[in-house]
DNA sequence: AGGAGATGTGTAAATTTTACACAATGATAC
DNA sequence: GTATCATTGTGTAAAATTTACACATCTCCT
């Protein structure tokens, strides 16, 4: 059976070309329709969802492995990607059944060792521009799609915990770094940006104070252009001044408290 | 040679009982004489220093492995220990020579594989009460002692980077969590606490405003007792109200900006 | 007994954050 | 074509927070 050979070759490759015991998992955030989304994968022949992830090649740095997976699932390069925690609880495979995996992949039990040993997994979160992503399943999965952050189903492994912690870290990031550069389209309106902040923080903000504050950080450039097509007064379009944005990122100025 | 057998048994144990490719490193902070200190180890028969660290048993969680190492080097239990970053650069062994290690340990080259492969290492930092620590070398080291944070020598691997990032994370922690519970003796004076904050932040703070702020957090209990023996006016002693302290830790109230 | 040096304490100024309202615009409905 | 509705653009005053700052007290040392 062609498929089975492929699986076995892949597992063999895991053993020879990749670091054992360590993996990388990704919480990829997107923003669409005023909702925060995460990209999830569905295992072949099942209804089990999980986070995208990957393994680390022997000659590859941890960050590069994360970028490689991210690129594979989204088609994107050059996006914000940040490590937020490493998960190494012995019980992190509690939502994972070896027998089910066997069925899933049509494997013999001995092939499964690779999957049922506890790995330590390094969690990264990424901020990506929703519209630019081409969700792409990997070898072990049938489907890759966005889920609303508030409607994520129970996931395999400890992946629900990962999303929770990634979101917490993202919220904290918001307090000392600007956000939006890789999450919004190039041109966006002030209400767009505010909605992003409100969605991440889970609270509403004063419109005027928000604008004052954002402009005060001196990372935005207002364009002549306005956004048309809305049913109301046309708002101005803005874009990030990349240099100043990068500087604010590095300087870690105190942002929204 | 008895010693060599011991080494080989240990290396064998690494292969059978511990996760390959992953390790844990510890930045253990102490506070003494108004200086922030880190605990370092010196490799046997060398002048090379590095951070304490360890490996993870197959049936052991990542956090437990870190606690185990911490206990081994300090004799302490129940201390503040927090993961801050995972290091997985392919070049993180650049300050490490395989030949030198051979000399150090008196090993054959084939035994060394365990040391010269790149591991991914999870960095933890700990805050401990200086006076309670009994610095204890491990099998590979001759000496374990405190170093002033400003006088750390060039270390093996990427351990200097680890200290830098641990300190950065500690400074950030200071902005949303109280600190001092496991770093100061049970009873301490307000100037002690202030000195701790100033040392970590690397800047001096106003005495009156500091006190006002600290008392405002409502995590301190002022004792009747005063500290005697100083050459000056006897300052009050304080201690942390553990419950309120824990609550402040969990709530992540905004602290010093 | 006096002096040196550190501690204990409160208030006013400056800054930052928050609250808040009305005119202008553009699509849609009539 | 005109009125309507929902949304955008904009500034100021009050409140809260943060900062700056000085003098009396205590303890050991000389």
UniProtKB/TrEMBL annotation, chains A, B:
Signal peptide: none annotated. Residues 17-169 form the Nudix hydrolase domain. Gene3D superfamilies: Nucleoside Triphosphate Pyrophosphohydrolase, Winged helix-like DNA-binding domain superfamily/Winged helix DNA-binding domain. InterPro entries: NUDIX_hydrolase-like_dom_sf, NUDIX_hydrolase_dom, WH-like_DNA-bd_sf, WH_DNA-bd_sf, WHD_NrtR. It comes from the Bacteria. SUPFAM superfamilies: Nudix, Winged helix' DNA-binding domain. Keywords: Hydrolase. One of its GO terms (molecular function) is hydrolase activity. This is NUDIX hydrolase. It comes from Spirosoma profusum.
């Amino acid at each position: 059976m062609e498929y089975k050979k492929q699986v076995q070759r892949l597992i063999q490759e895991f053993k020879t070309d990749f670091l054992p015991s360590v993996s990388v998992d990704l919480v990829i955030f997107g923003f669409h329709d005023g909702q925060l989304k995460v990209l999830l994968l569905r295992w072949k022949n099942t209804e089990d969802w999980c986070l995208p992830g990957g393994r680390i090649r022997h000659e590859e740095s941890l960050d590069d492995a994360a970028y490689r997976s991210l690129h594979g699932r989204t088609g994107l390069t050059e996006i914000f990607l940040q490590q937020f925690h490493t998960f190494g609880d012995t019980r992190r495979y509690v939502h994972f059944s070896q027998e089910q995996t066997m069925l899933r992949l049509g494997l013999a039990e001995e092939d499964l060792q690779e999957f049922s040993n506890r790995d330590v997994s390094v969690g990264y979160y990424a901020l990506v521009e929703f519209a630019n992503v081409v969700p792409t399943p990997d070898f072990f999965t049938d489907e890759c799609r966005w889920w609303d952050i508030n409607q994520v189903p129970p996931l395999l492994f400890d992946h629900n915990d990962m999303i929770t912690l990634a979101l917490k870290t993202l919220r904290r990031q918001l307090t000392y770094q600007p956000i939006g550069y890789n999450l919004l389209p190039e041109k966006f309106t002030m209400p767009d940006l505010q909605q992003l902040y409100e969605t991440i923080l889970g609270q509403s903000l004063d419109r005027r104070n928000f604008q004052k504050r954002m402009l005060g950080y001196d990372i935005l450039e207002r364009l002549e252009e306005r956004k048309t097509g809305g049913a109301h007064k046309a708002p101005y379009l803005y874009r990030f001044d990349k240099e100043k944005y990068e500087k604010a990122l590095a300087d870690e100025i105190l942002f929204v408290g």
